[in-house]
Amino acid sequence: MTEAAHATRRPPGTPCWSSLMVHGLGTTEAFYTDLFGWEYEPGPEPFGAFVRALLGGQEVAGIGEMPPDRHLPVAWTTYFATDDADAAAEAVRSCGGTVAVGPLDAAGAGRTAICSDPMGAVFGLWQAEERVGTRLSGVHGTPVWAELVTQDTSTVGKFYEHVFGHEAVQRTTAPASAATAADFDYLTLLLDGRPVAAVHGVGRSLPHDRGPHWMTYFAVDDADAAAALVHRLGGRVVQPPREGLTGRVTTVADPEGALLALVELRPGNSL
User: Fold this and answer.
1) pTM of the prediction?
2) Integer Cα distance of 187 and 224 in angstroms
3) What is the DSSP string of 45-100?
4) Which residue, 85, 165, 169, 170, is the most exposed by fewest CB within 10 angstroms?
């Protein structure tokens, strides 16, 4: 590991990266460039057709292209930092989760694995080497929060506590993602007392065609304008802009159907 990577790597259990696998890399690049202002650089090579999205020269996310014979669901994947991907993968297995890919080396960038929790939500592990993950946050086009949408919080809350050392705390005020009081089954995941992610239980409201999934929240300057732009660019507004505790928020889908939340952060507030 380089000294630079060691100095800036995230604490274990912290969301550190978001990536998306799609069928059409070029058209997806164009969509997110128009929406967020992203530019791109290739790599790492072992991942095939894969690009790193940049803002101001800083890495913020990744987009890869599936092989033509693969027809997997298109979705953003949240990666959690770990100091030991192999040990974390074993913890996933021992706690009832599944390791689908890896752990494997990514050409010196780091070591990674793709896993799912006991309810089936997919997430990644990232042991940083040359690449520490997202290097910019809090400005338009950067990931700022990760939220698991699942049936209920009880089982998976314990899973993430055991695997990553999170402290799961029941939230006492409804988040922006809770559309009604019935949706208010919500845990905040803490590391050393600091919120790093959340688990939102939606019961029977979970879409049958999507199942449990991690949702990436991206900061935008204007949630209403961003939602209108998504529509013009060929995406879809799933939940119209609405007021949340931290600012206006909307849930949208890109042209290939990947869900993401866009949040207009108020000064001094965080999710």
Assistant:
1) 0.90
2) 27
3) GGGSSEEEEEETTEEEEEEEE--TT--PPP-EEEEEE-S-HHHHHHHHHHTT-EEE
4) 170
